[in-house]
Structure formats: structure tokens, C-alpha cells
Design brief:
It contains 14 helices and 14 strands. It has 383 residues and is an alpha/beta fold. It folds into two domains: 27-143 and 279-350, Rossmann fold (3-Layer(aba) Sandwich); 146-272 and 360-378, Response regulator (Rossmann fold). It has a seven-stranded mixed β-sheet, sandwiched between helices. The protein has a five-stranded parallel β-sheet with strand order 2-1-3-4-5. The chain has a two-stranded antiparallel ribbon with strand order 11-12. The longest helix is centred in the N-terminal third of the chain and has 20 residues, at 40-59. It is globular, with a radius of gyration of 21 Å.
């Protein structure tokens, strides 16, 4: 009886994964994200999407017959924890490549470690400019913060025709990078930032800042921050009677923002990575599969992490499980068809060249508003 059960189980596994994949040595890919703490929703989104990709890859035969094994760690957005994780992935787990599904700080502090070890890392959505400057083994499939900031500036002054602007900037690498690009683009087209205030992660009360904004009556309020602060700021702005356009960025791109902001989210426009109305079949398949498995809509964090993982897989299929060859294959990537858009190539710094998506909240969901593809805006710096 036991032998029959064992035989049936092996047969089922063979059907699901194939004989070669079932018994071949796994290829280890490292992954870290904030699975606990204030950013846990983003970490879960990143991990969930990558696990969908792992399942899809393994069910289709793995990498040239070898299954992929994802080695997952929780960085808690803690730089010390992140450094320890990097060393474990290199020394203990012996991964051939790494995907960062985390924020800028964990990604920034680990990039030099992976680069020194000769392990390619692909950052999914961390925006800090110093990340890819760590060396030739570091890549980014998301936007450089300054690029997304410039795209937001383009939306503000040229699409929404705002001339008088106010800004709330989260006081970290993410916010500062966005602010720099936004100022650059707004200034170029004659817009004027009449008020700017930096706020700390975890800020709950925006009333003093919003009172000043109401007095100045700008055409548009640009907010950089994560979903919790973003939802509070937007809700408090509408409660205070501020009616100007509100523009956000990828930190807003979460089901949690829509849930926490409620009706106040209507009409909010964001620059981001994912177009929910993208007509490409595999994008709609991803959205459908994610919702069916996890009971919620995917966000840009998940889609970006999926793309980062699949860039590694694409390179592995060409190069095999050799870190140096994987790095070279990633660098040579051309016209990669990602969930978040087509990556034309990676530049010398490892930055992706692709369009910025713009979404608007309609009837409680994100929908297409525009796409920014002007090379002057979306081309990342080479040095």
C-alpha cells in the first residue's frame, strides 16, 4: 500500500514537473523583501508575484531541465539585517543570482556586497541612484528615482497644465530622488513650486502642511511617499476641502492605498510601473492569476518583482548557472517583454530603458491615464 502511494506521488510529480526537472539539481536564486514591519504589504506583493513566476518556470521544465529554488529572506527594511542576508545568500546558500524585492535602503547596502562577490543582482523597484553605481553586477528593472520624478513633472505641467504646485516629499532616498527629477522637469516648462515640505516615514497628521497648501491654493499637489502616508495625506486633504489635482508616484500603487484612502482616492493620478489596462495577453493573464491565487489585485511592486525575476531567468536560459555568464547575458538583454513594459536594453550602469506608466483612480481602481515614453524623460543616466 505504501509503495503504491509513493509510486502515485512520484507519478503525479513527474506529470507536474517532468522527469528531468524532478530529479535535476535546483538552481538557487536569492530573494529578499520586507515581509514584516511597516512595509509588509509591499514585501508580500513582491514575494507572491515572484512565486507565481517560479511556479510557471518550473511547470514548464525549469531552466534547461533544472528546477528553480527561490531562497527567501525578510529584510524588514533594516540595513544591518540586509547585509547579513547578503552574506548568507553568498556564503551559505550559494545562489547564482539575486532579486531585490525591497526598498532602496536594503538594496543600496547589499549592492556592493553582491557586486564584490560577482553575484548579479536585479533590483525590482528600488529607486535610489547609487544602487547600480555599486558595479557591473547590479541592474535595475524599475525606474531610477530621478526618471520617475521627471515623468511626474511632465504629467503635472504638460498633461495636467499645472503652473502653481505644492509638494510633500518623504524624507528618505526614495523621496529625495523623486523630488530632484520633479523639480527639474517643472522648472524647464515654467511651473513654480510654491510650497514644499519633507515629512518622516510614519507621519500620521498632515493637517499643518495641508492648511498651508489650502492657503496657497495651488493647481496641483505632488506627494511622494508609501501607501499608508499617501492615503492619510490624500484623505486629510479632501476632508479639509482641498480640491486641486493630486499627483502621486509608485508608492501609492497598492491595494492598501485604495482601501485606506477610500473615496478620497478617486481622481488621484500616479506615475508607476504597471498599466492594468495593458492589452497584451500575458499581462492580463498575470493579473487574473494573481487575483485568483491571492484574492487581491496585483500592484506595481509585484509586477516589477516578477519582471526582475524573469530577467534573471531569461539570462539563465542563455548562460546556464554561471554567475559571470548570467551577468553578461543580463547586460546584453534587448527588447525584453515585461509586465511593466518593454525593456529596450540596460545601459552601461545597468539601468533599464522603458516607458513610465501613468494611472488614474476611477471607481476605486487604477486605470490607464497616459504613458510617458519621451527619451528625454525616460533615458536614465550612463554615469
Amino acid at each position: 500500500m505504501k509503495k503504491w502511494i509513493l509510486g502515485s506521488l512520484i507519478g503525479l510529480l513527474v506529470i507536474c514537473f517532468g522527469v528531468g526537472t524532478l530529479f535535476a539539481a535546483p538552481i538557487k536564486i536569492g530573494f529578499f523583501a520586507p515581509l514584516t514591519g511597516f512595509a509588509a504589504a509591499d514585501g508580500a506583493s513582491a514575494k507572491n508575484a515572484v512565486m507565481l513566476a517560479v511556479d510557471k518556470v518550473n511547470k514548464s521544465g525549469g531552466i534547461n531541465g533544472n528546477p528553480v529554488k527561490l531562497i527567501v529572506y525578510d529584510d524588514r527594511v533594516n540595513p544591518k539585517e540586509s547585509v547579513a542576508i547578503a552574506n548568507k545568500l553568498i556564503e551559505k546558500d550559494k545562489v547564482v543570482a539575486v532579486v531585490s524585492g525591497s526598498y532602496s535602503t536594503p538594496t543600496r547596502v547589499t549592492a556592493p556586497i553582491f557586486n564584490k562577490a560577482g553575484i548579479p543582482m536585479v533590483a525590482a523597484y528600488a529607486v535610489d541612484p547609487s544602487i547600480t553605481k555599486a558595479g557591473p553586477y547590479i541592474f535595475r528593472t524599475g525606474f531610477l528615482g530621478q526618471v520617475e520624478g521627471k515623468a511626474a513633472g511632465e504629467v503635472a505641467v504638460n498633461l495636467l497644465k499645472a503652473k502653481k504646485l505644492a509638494m510633500f516629499t518623504i524624507d528618505n532616498d526614495f523621496g529625495r530622488a523623486l523630488s530632484k527629477g520633479f523639480h527639474e522637469r517643472v522648472k524647464k516648462f515654467g511651473g513654480k513650486v510654491v510650497y514644499e515640505h519633507a515629512f518622516a516615514i510614519g507621519t500620521k497628521d498632515f493637517s499643518a502642511m495641508l492648511t498651508k497648501v489650502k492657503e496657497l491654493s495651488p493647481d496641483l499637489l505632488f506627494i511622494s511617499g508609501y501607501y499608508e502616508e499617501a492615503a492619510l495625506a490624500v484623505k486629510q486633504a479632501r476632508d479639509l476641502g482641498i480640491t486641486c489635482k493630486i499627483l502621486g508616484e509608485e508608492g501609492f500603487d497598492s491595494p492598501k492605498f485604495l482601501e485606506l484612502a477610500g473615496e478620497a482616492a478617486e481622481g488621484v493620478i500616479i506615475t508607476t510601473n504597471l498599466n492594468r489596462d495593458d492589452p497584451r495577453p500575458f499581462v492580463q493573464e498575470f493579473i487574473k492569476s494573481y487575483k485568483a491565487k491571492y484574492g487581491m489585485e496585483p500592484d506595481m511592486v509585484g509586477a516589477s518583482s516578477y519582471d526582475a525575476f524573469m530577467v534573471v531567468v531569461n539570462a539563465l536560459r542563455k548562460a546556464g548557472p554561471n554567475s559571470k555568464k548570467i551577468r553578461d547575458a543580463i547586460a546584453a538583454t534587448k527588447d525584453f517583454n515585461g509586465l511593466t513594459g518593454q525593456i529596450a536594453h540596460f545601459n552601461k550602469l545597468g539601468e533599464a530603458m522603458k516607458p513610465v506608466q501613468v494611472q488614474i483612480v476611477k471607481n476605486g481602481a487604477f486605470h490607464y491615464f497616459a504613458q510617458i515614453s519621451d527619451p528625454e524623460i525616460v533615458t536614465p543616466p550612463n554615469k
